[in-house]
Write a structure and sequence with these properties.
The chain is α+β, with helices and mostly antiparallel strands. The protein has 16 helices and 4 strands. Strands 1-3-4-2 form a 4-stranded mixed β-sheet, sandwiched between helices. The protein starts with 9 loop residues before the first helix and ends in a 22-residue tail after the last helix. GO terms for molecular function: DNA binding.
């Protein structure tokens, strides 16, 4: 065991359990111990014996040393905003929170190799009320964006210091979510994109929705919100996403036509605004560019044609993907030739003791990616016959 490790850390057992979407009962049954024992381990009231610890390590997929480590940085977790709060189980939400905590911890170590852009979120302290049109204008001004459609908001978010990743590979289904963390007093903003990997239009809108959460984090306390208030908050973020991606003046000009009651008109506009036809129709309603009756007619057309699930142009349009994580790892592993052992050792020095497979899973890297340099430099001795 590393000399940097201390005594058993029960909090890490809880973290590993939540990471795997397991209950105390699940772990107890597989480890062959009582629920009370697992509870005592997690609260540091008792320490597992070596045999039990080996079982727990195997069950949870974390190295034994992980359970004896401590974080080298002070981390304060803020609210996590899930788009599908109702549809997502509490177990899965807790798992995602633990995964994003490890993701940020790993990204901070990667930041010792790579200089990522500084976080640049516009100041919202002067907003007395939430005006999504005003907030969208603020973002465009701070980020130097013209009053034009934004083809790839994910790219803009990464350029301005937001860590963007896709849902972790062992996740079956979950929508996008976002979180603010304070790491050693420094604000870290994270957006995890959902399972809409094959739909560039929805993904662009989801990214804008989560950006709204990051910007308006101080306006909400998730734990205090009722279901109705949570829905209202999500509606506000959708309105912000529409305001940011579909600029009011430009869109108003486009809808100065009799075609605004033709569903195909909105499908054609998808290419220009990089959001779904459904989102464009909703935006038109919010701006009162179409009447309630026209809105209902268009949405009925969407349903009748089966476009609620998949619209025209969805499949043939390339998916938008985060780039900075993979580019950073390419520089470290492929260009600088850092071995997986060296990288994992750097993580361990920062109290992050994980198997390479787990790190690859968290960073959405191909399995075995970190180990590609581990055999380089070995002397091969062959003899002639």
């Amino acid at each position: 065991m590393s000399e940097n490790l201390t005594s058993f850390n029960g909090e890490r057992l809880k973290t590993a359990r939540l990471y795997n979407s397991m209950t105390i009962t699940d772990v107890a049954e597989q480890a062959g111990v009582s629920k009370q024992a697992i509870s005592q381990f997690e609260t540091n009231k008792a320490e597992p014996k070596l045999e039990t610890m080996i079982k727990l390590s195997s069950i949870l997929g974390f190295p034994r040393d992980y359970f004896y480590g401590v974080s080298k940085k002070e981390i304060v977790i803020g609210d996590t905003y899930f788009r599908s709060m109702v549809a997502t189980s509490n177990k899965e939400r807790m798992a995602q929170i633990e995964r994003v905590k490890l993701f940020v911890a790993i990204m901070n170590v990667i930041g010792e190799y790579i200089e990522f852009p500084q976080l640049a979120l516009c100041d919202t302290n002067d907003l007395n009320d939430i005006d999504v049109e005003e907030l969208a204008e603020k973002v465009r001004k701070v980020w130097g964006l013209k009053k034009q459609p934004i083809a790839n908001l994910i790219d803009e978010m990464e350029k301005h210091g937001i860590f963007v990743n896709s849902v972790f590979t062992n996740t079956k289904h979950i929508d996008a979510y976002s979180q603010i963390q304070q790491v050693d007093g420094k604000t870290t903003a994270v957006v995890i994109l959902g399972s809409d990997k094959d739909n560039a239009f929805r993904r662009n809108f989801s990214a804008a929705h989560e950006l709204g959460h990051l910007l308006l984090d101080d306006f909400y306390n998730v734990d205090d919100l009722s279901k109705l208030e949570y829905k209202e908050m999500e509606d506000t973020m959708n309105r912000f996403a529409g305001a940011l991606l579909v600029p009011k003046e430009l869109y108003t000009s486009d809808l100065m036509t009799s075609s605004k009651t033709d569903l195909n008109f909105y499908i054609r506009l998808k290419k220009k605004y990089h959001v779904s036809a459904a989102a464009l129709i909703v935006r038109a309603k919010h701006l009162e560019l179409i009447t309630v009756n026209q809105y209902q007619y268009l949405m009925k057309q969407l349903s009748q044609k089966g476009y609620r699930t998949a619209e025209p142009l969805d499949k043939e349009t390339p998916t938008i993907k985060p780039r900075y994580i993979k580019e950073a790892m390419k520089m470290i592993i492929e260009e600088d030739g850092v071995t997986g052992k060296e990288f994992l050792g750097e993580l361990e020095e920062n109290g992050i003791i994980l198997y390479s497979k787990t790190v690859e899973e968290i960073l959405n890297l191909p399995e075995g990616y970190l180990c590609q340099n581990d055999s380089k430099g070995e002397v091969i001795e062959l003899q002639r016959k």
